[in-house]
Every structure is written in structure tokens, then in C-alpha cells.
Amino acid sequence: MTNPTLVIRGGLIVGPLESFLGDVLxxxxxxxxVGPSVTAPSGALEIDAAGCWVGPGFVDLHTHLREPGKExxxxxxxxxxxxxxxxxxxxxxxxxxxxxxxxxxxxxxVLERGKLAAVDVAVAGAITIGRQGxxxxxxxxxxxxxxxxxxxxxxxxxxxxxxxxxxxxxxxLRVTLxxxxxxxxxxQGGSMHEGASSSKLGLIGRPAIAEELMVMRDIELVRLTGCxxxxxxxxxxxSIALVLEARAQGLPVTCEVxxxxxxxxxxxxxxxxxxxxxHPPLRTAADVAAxxxxxxxxxxxxxxxxxxxxxPESKDMAFDEAPPGMLGLEQAAxxxxxxxxxxxxxxxxxxxxxxxxxxxxxxxxxxxVRVGHSAHGGAVSVGEDANLVVxxxxxxxxxDRDKLAxxxxxxxxxxxxxxxxxxxxxxxxxxxxxxxxLQ
Amino acid sequence: MIDSIAGxxxxxxxxxxxxxxxxxxxxxxxxxxxxxxxxxKVPALKGKVIASLFFEESTRTRLSFETxxxxxxxxxxxxxxxxxxxxxxxSLRDTINTIDALGIDAxxxxxxxxxxxxxxxxxxxxxxxxxxxxxQHQHPTQGLLDAFTxxxxxxxxxxxxxxxxGSELFAGLNVLIVGDIRHSRVARSDIEVYTRLGAHVTVAxxxxxxxxxxxxxxxxxxxxxxxALATADVVGLLRLQKERGSGAFVPSLGEFTSTFGLTSRRxxxxxxxxIIMHPGPMNRGVxxxxxxxxxxxxxxxxxxxxxxxxxxxxxxxxxAGTTLxxxxxx
Lengths: 439, 330
Ligand SMILES: [Zn+2]
Description:
The complex is a heterodimer of chains A (439) and B (330). With 439 residues, chain A is of the alpha/beta class. Chain A has 13 helices and 19 strands. Chain A has 2 domains: 6-53 and 381-438, Urease, subunit C, domain 1, CATH 2.30.40; 57-361, TIM Barrel, CATH 3.20.20.140. Chain A has helices at residues 76-86, 104-114, 139-145, 160-170, 184-187, 196-201, 208-225, 237-248, 259-263, 285-296, 312-315, 332-340, 347-361; strands at residues 6-14, 19-27, 30-35, 45-48, 53-56, 58-63, 88-93, 120-125, 149-150, 176-179, 192-193, 205-206, 228-231, 253-257, 302-303, 388-398, 417-427, 430-434, 437-438. In chain A, strand 11, helix 6 and strand 12 form a beta-alpha-beta unit. In chain A, helix 7 packs parallel to helix 8 (237-248). Chain A is globular and about 65 Å long. Chain B folds into 2 domains: 18-138 and 307-319, 3-Layer(aba) Sandwich (Rossmann fold); 140-304, Aspartate/ornithine carbamoyltransferase (Rossmann fold). Helix content of chain B is 38%, strand content 13%. In chain B, helix 2 links the parallel strand 1 (49-54) and strand 2. The radius of gyration of chain B is 20 Å and the shape is globular. Chain A binds chain B through residues 194-196, 199-205, 207, 271-274, 313-314, 316-321, and chain B through 14, 91-94, 111, 113-116, 118-119, 122-123, 134-138, 183, 185, 188, 211-214, 216-217. Residues 153-154, 180, 232-233, 306 of chain A line the site of zinc ion. Chain A: Its cofactor is Zn(2+). Chain A: Residues 56-237 form the Dihydroorotase catalytic domain.
């Protein structure tokens, strides 16, 4: 089946070097013409992009697709639908499935299933077997399959000696290890940020120092081993400062922030609503402000969702018993835009943190036939793979947890009005989503 | 701040104004008289159904609440969930919905997780929720009965009634709370109630048993425990969970006792009029010596006795006016 020719009309075409009003013509999975006004062949599907930004489809570095093992919360198919609605053309599936993605068979399973999904699905492999932090997973075999990111996410690798060896082993393979930074000797048993709110609520805290100590430790291990490292969902002002300092020293480190960490603060937990429980936890208002400032300054490599679906029954447990995590894919871009200043935001920064930056971290700027994904986060120019989003920076909408594409409904944003939404998502030249409707 | 718990829930003392607290204390005072009658029963909650839902077992608190409910003529559904469905991983929402289906007006609940009663109040908004202790969060009726007991003792000394004195007797009162403040729901409720009534609260504990943000609390941290004892009008001791003494928070129970226990030797530092309190159950020989617990300065039994009228007041105020509506869940 060949896809119809598409033409995107009258949008602001964003960069990476300049932005200009124009049209984009797409055929056979690629961009075939870009200009102030292109002539479309008859039968071409027209997408009105007036008032919209047209740029590379978003790339999520941090998606929990739950398959295999927890299909009652999400599947690769439904998670990819949520991604498409959010404006994503690619996601990186996290390995904390059941069983974990710690074997060639499991990685192959997700990659194969991913090929049928609405968006491109890349895989992050586990660093250790069963994500137990004891024994290295077959990192070289995964690398040969095209896996570029490795993490035990959900857990950080607690043992410094093992982490050092994993970095040393991974370094010549030109892959990146990604860390969920929380030292469990400090965070264990905690269910929210340690601070004024946790103290008042009588909930055990996960202190900022638990995250920052592991960031410090890993920066030093990167200095020692030379392996490149990506810091997942940094949530405190100090963590960001540490990574920026390391980067300024020339160390191969990158970092991401998650929308909930720059949108919500610890006081959200005062309702005892487990929808606000997440690891690392929602931090202080000062941390939220610092993350937003860093985003606007353009020093953050990526916004990543940490999209973490959970069944309703698991979120109907007591706060300290409920699992951590919240949905993110469908709201992330709108929340990112709000943090960057709304419709007045710099669209270059917007596409940098949502597409070009994460595509660089995941090494998805080039097509990779082994893992079956096309090129993401590129320029909107002739010859590029047509992975694009048409984003309306003004469209207001109210989040309704009962109308999400995700199989789960654990959004912390239910009832919130968000400005900015993907009007259309194009993956490999195919229109997968238009005005909130999956195609 | 809420000015009255009438028709509402009681999950925390953090949101109650002084007026709301005094209303409970005054109402409780009128129920003290009922408890001294030959027929200890009033028809105030006749026809109401109150579920007593203890996810964490506490015979003393459960009996106190159930006695209070029965003296108000309510029907009591006593459910020992600690050992049943919850262990099989049933969600909080399913458990409460099942009990709600039996037709209840109020639920008295104890849970080992902080905030569980707040969640339940969202799941069944048409049911009144009374927190009988949740995790390390709040134990509102304990805070109220502690304040009630202090007011009762001070009013008797002043030759007046508690009701006439309102909150006056708390002005400038030095209350010292000792022990595991960090993990204690009783401490959190006591600090709310005493400070709202105008008392000055000092806390004394090893650093590891203080919350990390104690500097932001409306209390003074004692730098010298012995000195703090000498100036205290009320000393409230807290139960030290035995597992805290296993080395993680304090090196040993013995070390805790020697530094922060109210030993007979230390009790000599107290002025004769100082009131000694303990929410029970006591670890005799750990946070308090037996001789001190049994001394005339200790009002520990009076606290237990006052639990019934205070809980009668709470049940009456929250539940008397309610009618069973078919409210939507959540
Ligand atoms: Zn994580």
C-alpha cells in the first residue's frame, strides 16, 4: 500500500537554522519539495498549517510501553497511538518490562512489535540482568542489533563498581548509558520529595540529595571512563547545574527533564492523590522555576516524558502503596511550550528539546535498518525522511483522562487547560494523526 | 481554616480553626455527663450506621470509638479488614465501595498509610470520614482528647469549667513533646491543636527522630532536655516504636532512655504541677519509667477515659446532620 502524497500548507517551517512560511510536499516517505508555495499533484491530501509550526516529529527518550508483561496498562500499539497524538514520530521504549529487556530475544520482540506501531519504536536495553544491578546484560549483542541507549530505569545502578565496569565495557561500543539517578540508601521507602510537604503529610521523603549524589558519582565515573552518559529525568536545580558544569568541562554528558518536573511541585501531593506520585518525585517550586529557566535558556538536551502507564486499580491504593509514575506523551509538547513562554516561545528551542536534541541523544538522526527506524530530528528539507509534526501553538484544550489514546488514565493533568497541541503527525510520510484523530 | 466540623469530615487538625477545636471540646464536655449516668446512652445518632474500619489493628482506639458510637445510639458495623481482603491486594477504593454498599453514614478508619482517609473521602463523598489514625500523618481525636484533658485539669485547678474557659487556659502554656516526633501522627495532631489554642510547644528528641524540616515547624527545639522539663507545664511523651531502637535511628533503646526517657531521676526536675501525658500504649522503661507513669502527675488513665466523650462529640458533630444521599463516587 502506498501512502497518498501529502502537502502541508502555509505553516511556519522551523529550522534548524531559520524559520519561514511555506509549504512542504511529501511523497514516498520523504520530503520532496519545500518552498513558499509548492504545486501538489492532483489527489494529494492537503493539511492546513496556517498559524502552526512545522518541524521534525518529536522523539521521546523515555517511554514505558509496558509490553511485555503489563498489557493491562499499556501496549506498544496503544502507547504508540498516544505518542502520535502527542506529535511524536518516534519513542524509545524503556526496558523495565516483565520480563525486562535484558536478552536478545526480548529486545527483538519489542523491535518487531514496534515495526507495526503508528510511530517508530526504538529500544533501550537493560544495563544489568533483570535490572537487578548485579550482573551486566549482553550490551555488545544489543549494540550489534542497533540498540544505542542502555538503562536500568526504574532503578539506578546502585553499585558504583558495577556502574564503572558497565561504562568501561560500553565505551568502545559507542553507545550511551542512561541513569535513573536516585541513591536508594537515601530514597528507599520514600514516596514523595523530602521537604515541607512530606513532613506535614507524614509521608517518607525521597530527598534531593539522593538524586544529586548519584549525578555527582556518575559524572566522576564518566570522567574516568570516557563513556557517554545520559541523565534521565533530572528534577532538581543542583542536578542540572552539576551536569551543565560537567558538560562545560567537555565531558560527554547529556540530560533530559520531564514535563511533570517543570510543571508540578511537591504541594500537588498534599491531596494524597497517587496520580502525583512519581520517581524522582515532584520537587519544590524553586526547582520547578529552575528547570523552566534552564529550558528557556536552551541548555537542556531533551524534554522526555517518562510516560508511565498504570491501571486504575493500582492507583486506587494508598499513596505509599501505589506505584510511581504518570502518563505524559499526549500532553508533553503543550506543557513544554507553556514552560518556554507559550505562543511567544522560540520555535527553534521548542523543536530542539522535543525532537532534534533527543534524536541526537538516541542516535536516531540517521536511518537504521537493523532496528527498522527512519531518520528523526532532522531538517525540514528535501530528501529527509518525512517524520514531521504540525503543531498549533495556540490551540487550547482541556485534558480528559477518559479520552486518552493510552490504555491507562493516570494523568495528573485531568481538567487542566493546556495551550498547544499537535494538529497533525506524519511518520515516514504517512499521516498518522490529524486534529486529535488517529488515521 | 474550617470553623466547624459539623456535617463535615475529620481527617486532620491542620485545617481546623481555634473555634472549630473549642466547639469539639465544649461538645465533649456535655457528653462527659452522659458517661456518668446509670443509663449511659443518648439517642443523638439513632438510625445512623457507623462503620469502624481498622486496616491496622488497635483494640484501644477501636473500642473507644465503638463505645462512643453506641452511647449515641448509632448502629456500629465493625470490620476487621486488617486480616481480610486487603491482604489480597484489594484497592482502597474497592474496599470502601463494598462497605458503602451496605449503607453507612460515617466511617471511622485507621490505616497504616498516611492520607488513606483523605483518599476515602474522595471515593465516597456522601459518607462522613473520621480519621482514627493514618500512618505518620494525623490522629485528630488523640490530639483533641489530649487538649480536652489538659483543659479539664487546668479548669478544675482554676475552679472553673472547661467550657467557660474556652481557650484561655492555653495562653502561654508550655507544652513539651518528647520522643519520635518524626514518625508520629500523635505529635503532628498535638502540635496543631496546642498551637491553635495558644500554647507554646517545645519538642525534644534525638536529631534523627525530628523531621528534617523541623526549623519550619511552629515549635521550639529543646537544646537541653533537662532544662525544658523544668519549665514545662505539660509533658507529652510519645510511644517509641521498638524497631526504631535497632540502630537505624537511635543506637539502642537503652541509649534513647538514657538521653530522652522520662526516668524517675529526670522526673524530679519537673515542677509539682506539671501534667504528664502519654497516648498509650506505653513502653514502660523505654520512654517512661513505671514509677513516673503511675505517679499522681500522670493523667494517662484520664486521657483514656476522655477518649469516649471526645469521640462522641466528633461523631455527633460530623454525622448527626447527615442524610444518606446517593452521591456519585469521586
Ligand atoms: Zn526513571
